[in-house]
Design brief:
The chain is an alpha/beta fold. The protein is built from 17 helices and 13 strands. It has helices spanning 25-33, 47-61, 74-79, 82-95, 107-112, 116-125, 147-162, 182-194, 227-232, 244-258, 271-285, 291-311, 322-334, 349-359, 376-385, 398-404, 428-450; strands at residues 39-44, 68-69, 100-105, 134-138, 173-177, 199-202, 238-242, 262-265, 315-319, 338-344, 367-370, 390-393, 408-410. It has a five-stranded parallel β-sheet, with helices on both faces. The chain has a four-stranded parallel β-sheet with strand order 2-1-3-4, sandwiched between helices. Helix 1 (25-33) packs across helix 7, helix 4 packs across helix 6 and helix 7 (147-162) runs parallel beside helix 10 (244-258). The structure holds iron/sulfur cluster. Residues 24, 26, 45, 49, 52, 106-107, 142 line the site of iron/sulfur cluster (SF4).
């Protein structure tokens, strides 16, 4: 009974958030920065922030996440961190020699009001940025927005600092990757390859946080979008933002800067979102969808049909990031499940509008909330008022799952108490099948554990 104080009765509380369904902005900026080849993320703030951001990413991916910090002391907290950042830039290029330093702010440096543009210009004037190297930056105050905002800001900064246009368009499509696992990005790249589409993916976390153990330490893994690729995004024929919350800003900036038209789609989780993703890709690239992908779709449909009786009518509570929740809710509806409670700490009207659109006819009793005051405490209260058959979300949900004795599917970020989430995609038809199999396994395991003895079935 770890959450024994949670009550079913809701009390009006405007000034209190308990267990928010979000984490802090710089974590997103740090994650996105790792998707640029040869880039060292730099946290402009105190050591504690950087340490928390690194350790959260490291625990989720089970990979060492390298980042530097301006290491604020009492003095820099009062007088500003300019001297620390200037010194850090010089040291980082001398000792670690990255191609790019991607600086993001923290609550502290934002409150002080450090001007990153001015500091980086000064570093260049003082010769601290070697020829051919870059220092880019973005603002990520964590008292506003979430890790998704930070990811979006960093991705937009890639465009701001690198994208160029020669005036000559080529046939490439930019795939602007929203916050996904490396395995999900890999699956999207595989689909584009099967469709014979030339793409530039950014940020590209594949071969960065899913690298093999070779016995040799590489400070900068071989993956990530390269700087020439990032520059070339301005000449691409169009962009496709995958997950509007994390990619719309980058797509918009690229349109303004280089005139690259764009569309956005939900992350392709589930049958319908993958259908839309493939059809949009097919339209933008002017290619047809190959039979092999249609066969993958058929297998997913077959799986759903075979197991429909187990999914039907199951009540589900979900929390996490909107770009993951929206297509997942749609997929649960495809499975004839009932997403009844939904919470995301990331603000934005799109989530609320999509929930109304998806749920108003099929699950009119559904409750959902987004933004700062949307927290897991409220989600737990809703579950106490009327129980669910399944909970889906990151590791923080395990306490609710245990207290309420419901099966729990880990989904989203961070997952720090299980392994494998970063190996098996949940995008595309194959990934959606993985997700549906996970859901089914949890439901049936729970049934086997808890049903009356006479109801125990050998074969399901
Ligand atoms: S919320 Fe602010 S102070 Fe806390 S770790 Fe994040 S950036 Fe640092």
């Amino acid at each position: 009974m770890l959450l024994r104080h949670t009550t079913a009765k809701e009390i009006d509380r405007h000034a209190l958030t308990i267990n928010p369904a979000k984490i802090c902005q710089p974590i997103g900026a740090m994650y996105a920065a790792l998707g640029l080849h040869g880039c060292l993320p730099h946290s402009h703030g105190s050591q504690g922030c950087c340490s928390y951001h690194r350790s959260t990413l490291t625990r989720h991916f089970k990979e060492p996440v390298l980042a530097s910090t301006s290491s604020f002391s009492e003095g820099s907290s009062v007088f500003g961190g300019s001297a620390n950042l200037l010194s850090a830039i010089e040291t980082i290029f001398t000792v670690y020699n990255p191609d790019v330093i991607a600086v993001h702010t923290t609550c502290l440096s934002e409150t002080i009001g450090d001007d990153l543009h001015e500091i980086v210009e000064k570093a260049k004037e003082e010769g601290k940025v070697p020829e051919g190297k870059e220092v880019i930056y973005c603002n990520t105050p964590s008292y506003k927005g979430t890790h998704i905002t930070g990811y979006s800001n960093q991705t937009a900064a890639f465009v701001k600092f690198f994208s160029q246009t020669t005036g000559k368009k080529d046939n490439t499509i930019n795939l602007v990757a929203g916050w996904m696992e490396p395995s999900d990005i890999n699956e999207i790249k595989r689909i584009a390859k099967v469709m014979n589409i030339k793409t530039i993916v950014f940020p590209d976390l594949t071969n960065v946080l899913d690298t093999p153990l070779t016995g040799t330490f590489n400070m900068f893994p071989k993956g990530g979008t390269t700087i020439p690729e990032m520059k070339a995004t301005g000449d691409s024929k169009c962009s496709l933002g995958i997950g509007p919350y994390s990619t719309l800003d980058a797509c918009t900036k690229l349109k303004e800067k280089c005139g690259v038209d764009f569309e956005t789609v939900e992350i392709p989780i589930g049958l319908k979102a993958t259908d839309r993703f493939l059809m949009t890709l097919s339209k933008l690239a002017g290619v047809s969808i190959p039979d092999s992908l249609t066969e993958e779709r058929g297998r997913l449909v077959d799986f759903i049909a075979d197991n429909a009786k187990y999914f039907w009518g199951k009540r589900v509570a979900l929390f996490g990031d909107p770009d993951i929740l929206i297509p997942t809710v749609e997929f649960l509806l495809t499975l004839d499940m009932k997403p009844v409670y939904l919470v995301t700490g990331t603000p934005g009207k799109h989530f609320d509008e999509k929930m109304v659109e998806l749920l108003k006819d099929k699950v009119p009793e559904a409750k959902f909330k987004s933004g700062e005051q949307a927290d897991m405490f409220q989600l737990h209260q809703w579950i106490k008022q009327k129980p669910v058959d399944l909970l889906m979300g990151n590791t923080y949900g395990k306490y609710i799952a245990r207290d309420e004795n419901v099966p729990f599917v880990r989904l989203g970020f961070p997952i720090v108490d299980r392994a494998g989430h970063n190996f098996f995609p949940k995008t595309g038809y194959i990934g959606s099948e993985n997700l549906a199999i996970n859901i089914l396994r949890e439901l049936l395991d729970f049934q086997d554990r808890t049903c009356r003895e006479e109801k125990m079935e050998f074969q399901m």
